[in-house]
Amino acid sequence: MKPPIPGPLNLVHQPQTCFNKFGIPYPKPPGIPLGLGQILPLVLKDRGASYTELGVFSLQSWPFVLKLLWAPLVDSLYIRSIGRRKTWMVPAQLIIGLLLLFTAAQLDLLLGDESNTPAVYSLTGLFLLMNFACATQDIAVDGWALTMLRKENANYQATCNAAGQTFGYAMGFTGFAALEHFQVMSLSSFMSAMGFMFIGVTLAVALLKKEDPLPPGEEPEGVLEAYQQMVRMTSLKPVRYLFIILFTWKVPFAVCESVAPVKFQEYGIPKEHVAYVTSLLMPLYILLPVFAARWTEGPQPLQLAMTVYPSRIATGPLTAALAFYTPAQVVPIPWVFYTLLVFTIAAAAVTSELMFVAQMAFFAHVSDPAFGGTYMTLLNTIGNLGGRWPPTAAFFLVDVLSCKHESCLVQSDGFYTVTALCAVLGVVWLVATRAMVKQLQSWKPQDWRVNHQRSD
């Protein structure tokens, strides 16, 4: 038999490319609401929101953490004439589009004005619903990907996921910032355009993309059995180890990822400039997963993440130092400062993206295709939980540890305190978990199988 051609052009069973299969229906749609969810804290800060309120808004991404609760439903229930995955993916994406249109129509009221404070809780609720639909779509396509990719190319699921989601994120974050700066369209107009795009793309997928029927003998189990299998998955020793690792490994980066952009804005850097710096790196974000795929081949893809981890820890103090020396009173801001800002953000972006690709490649390597989207959703939920709670905690801690009033015994900015604490915790984490990560990658794929361990 002729060996398969390595690389992204031979990923799937049919003779189509990765982006033909995944570019529109797979990770791109959830990336747009995620990008909007990142730009809105900057807008809310402009409208007078506190760090605590920004912490509340950060809860809008938590459906990605909780999606495990309804993953067995998505994996087990479907309409045969539509397709197992399209049954959920198509309605979810239509709901996202409709919610974008509704939010756009109410946005002026939600963001407030000079006389009214932002309706943070209402805005958080709308984005919670939007991300609930995004998370449901994620479950469906994660399961679809496991059956669509060749077994020997399973690690390329990480490539497709990271590249496509990053492209969607770029559209939601930097796309809006650039269009607003050049007065092409407002945030509400941008959200309306994205809403119509969602609906149009979804209808095209529903009508033009055919989902292959399930082979005989591969019908999903019932809902109750799916939940029972999920409980068994969480009892596996490798899964428990993975939970410890992923629940804690992003703590050192919480401030750099969430609070730092708001802090730069507070110190006088316009939000559109922050977005421009990020947009310069978008080609890197999108292409890096493609080239990183070769580094995640084999049974130890997490080794890539451990290699870049010290560099990512260092980006926290570097970002804090840059924020401290922000020349807010100098107009225009020197190019030297922007050069340093691009370098720092690029270092954080490269290390972050490589860690994400390594994580997703590891998930694809150990996931059991017999349980479709539920197993991948379990692993993704663990990863999402570790990525969601640190930024939320960071916003609250920065507010609690800041004291700038005249009545303060010692005036302090919690941003720098929390940054220092995170850097120390990062070094401790790296030393304490190195052996655990090595053990995690030493288990064979069979050790991650529910039925295998039950028969032992």
UniProtKB/TrEMBL annotation:
GO terms for cellular component: membrane. InterPro entries: AcetylCoA_trans_1-like, AmpG_permease/AT-1, MFS_trans_sf. It is found in: Membrane. Keywords: Membrane, Transmembrane, Transmembrane helix. The chain crosses the membrane at residues 88-107, 119-141, 190-208, 241-262, 274-292, 304-325, 337-362, 414-432. Its main location: membrane. One of its GO terms (molecular function) is acetyl-CoA transmembrane transporter activity. It comes from the Eukaryota. This is Acetyl-coenzyme A transporter 1. It comes from Effrenium voratum.
